[in-house]
Amino acid sequence: MNKAQTIPATARQTALLPVMEHFYTLQGEGVHQGRAAYFIRLGGCDVGCAWCDVKESWDASTHPLYPVADLVSLAKETPAEIVVITGGEPLLHDLTDLTTELRAAGLRVHMETSGSSPMSGQLDWVTLSPKKFKAPLPEAVAAAHELKVVIFHPSDFLWAEQWAAQVGPDCRLFLQPEWDRADRSTPLIIDYVKQHPQWRLSLQIHKYINVP
């Protein structure tokens, strides 16, 4: 199994970023589920979840470096109004240049992160998905508009509540089944949400409708 790669802060790229993939699709999860969005998946991860479905993103050195200007141009070639920066772990990179240029081009910038590295960039929406392998930093918890906890084991509900108690009062709360165990964890989440209606169920609809 590959090991997640840590990128030292001194080696972070700004004008050039390692990109595993980029594509225009529908957001499949959370508050903005079903909305068209341009996704930029950056390489590099220092969390290394055993159930990660994009392990090939972990090693940043295996992915081509893209100039920020090219990424903005690619997004602008589509009708997208939203760009989602994801990974890997996108906060291993300084996102200042990319997010500044995307917003200057009239695009909303969303990010999906574990919050394990310092915040950077100008962001319109932050989805925080905390992981037990490396807890999020307080600044990421404070910045979260949306908390998404992946349920892999029944004990994860307690983990979810621990982080729900730390995010802001307006942060939306989502529980999402781990895809490979969705048949087992989804019924548990449904029962939990019925008992704790402050939470919502998040399904990865992009996987059900077979889009990236």
Q: What characteristics describe this protein?
A:
212 residues; alpha/beta; TIM Barrel; nine-stranded mixed sheet; 9 strands; disordered N terminus
Q: How are the SSEs ordered, and which strands pair?
A:
Elements (H helix, E strand, L loop, with lengths): L15 E11 L9 E7 L22 E3 H9 L5 E5 L9 H9 L3 E6 L11 E4 L9 H6 L2 E6 L4 H9 L7 E6 L4 H14 L3 E3 L3 H4 L4
Parallel strand pairs: 2-4, 4-5, 5-6, 6-7, 7-8, 8-9
Antiparallel strand pairs: 1-2, 1-3
Helix pairs in contact: 1-2
Describe the structure.
With 212 residues, the chain is of the alpha/beta class. The chain has a single domain, classed as TIM Barrel (Alpha-Beta Barrel), CATH 3.20.20. It is 24% helix and 24% strand. The chain has six helices and nine strands. The chain has helices spanning 68-76, 96-104, 138-143, 156-164, 182-195, 205-208; strands at residues 16-26, 36-42, 65-67, 82-86, 108-113, 125-128, 146-151, 172-177, 199-201. α1 runs parallel beside α2 (96-104). The longest helix has 14 residues, at 182-195. The two termini are 24 Å apart. Residues 1-13 have low confidence and may be disordered.
The main sheet orders its strands as 3-1-2-4-5-6-7-8-9
The CATH superfamily turns out to be: Aldolase class I
- Main beta sheet strand tally, sense and closure: 9 strands, mixed
Provide mean pLDDT, rounded. Answer: 89
Quantity of strands, as a count: 9
Number of domain units: 1
Quaternary structure classification? single chain
- Number of H- or I-type helical stretches: 6
Tell me, briefly, the overall form.
globular
Radius of gyration over alpha carbons?
Answer: 16 Å
Give the name of the CATH architecture: Alpha-Beta Barrel
Highest CATH level, the class: Alpha Beta
The portion of residues assigned to helices is 10-25%
